[in-house]
Amino acid sequence: MDLTEYKTSSTLVYDGKLMKAWSDEVRLPNGKTAVREYIKHPGAVIMLPLFANGDTILVKQFRYPVGKTFFELPAGKLDGEEPLEQAVQRELAEETGWSGTRLTRLAEFYPCIGYSNEKMWLYLVEELLEASAQTDHDEFLEIHRMPFGRAVAMAHGGEIDDMKTVAALFFGERFLKSKT
Asked: Judging by beta carbons within 10 Å of its beta carbon (0-12, 13-18, 19+), is residue 69 exposed, middle or buried?
């Protein structure tokens, strides 16, 4: 069975700084029509910084849509046609004050397929060097350096409940175990 839905019309309902929201009419596999509302997102990178001693960096920040403060791995949206590795270096330096000389792409995934086309690319960042942290004017973060194993345990225990961070930590854990 072909499960594809085909767009018959599309309306931009919100054109914001970060994202655009659309309302499309689609033809369903059974020939009927339905409305699909979704957000177009430029994509993002998520970084798993790993120091030589096994520490990583989490940032803690308040997320307005859910009214809660979260532990997260550093991450950020792509700027236009910016190469992924450049976005990794830019966002890691902006949020944490670190950069890395060895980048390994671990995964790519879609974090919210029910309402957005956002795609994220996960990079392990090693051989870390101090850089200058320059968060955006509306971004307030606390930087937390901790053993990677502790961060993974926090995810397993529910203390980290941001899905991109949970997924990234589990991908990282699997990758690092495969290297030993």
From this structure: exposed
Phi first, then psi: give them for residue 170, nearest 5 degrees. -70, -40
Contact 123, 145 (CB under 8 A): no
Q: For each successive 10 residues of the chain (180 residues), what is the average pLDDT?
A: 96 92 97 97 97 97 96 95 95 94 97 95 96 77 96 98 97 92
| CA pair distance 77, 41, nearest whole angstrom | 8
Is residue 1, in this structure, part of any structural domain at all? no
How many structural domains does the chain have?
Answer: 2
- Measured from the Cβ of residue 180, the count of other Cβ atoms closer than 10 Å reads 4
User: Where do we find the tokens 């919100």?
Assistant: 14
- Cβ count within 10 A of residue 165: 23
HSE value, Cβ hemisphere, 13 Å, CA-based, for 66: 8
| CB neighbour list of residue 95: distance below 8 Å, 6 or more residues apart | 59, 74, 75, 76, 133, 135, 139, 141, 143
Would you list the DSSP string of 157-177? Answer: TTS---HHHHHHHHHHHHHHH
Query: Which pTM value belongs to this model?
Result: 0.92
Q: Are residues 16 and 51 in the same domain?
A: no
Q: What is the pLDDT of residue 172?
A: 97
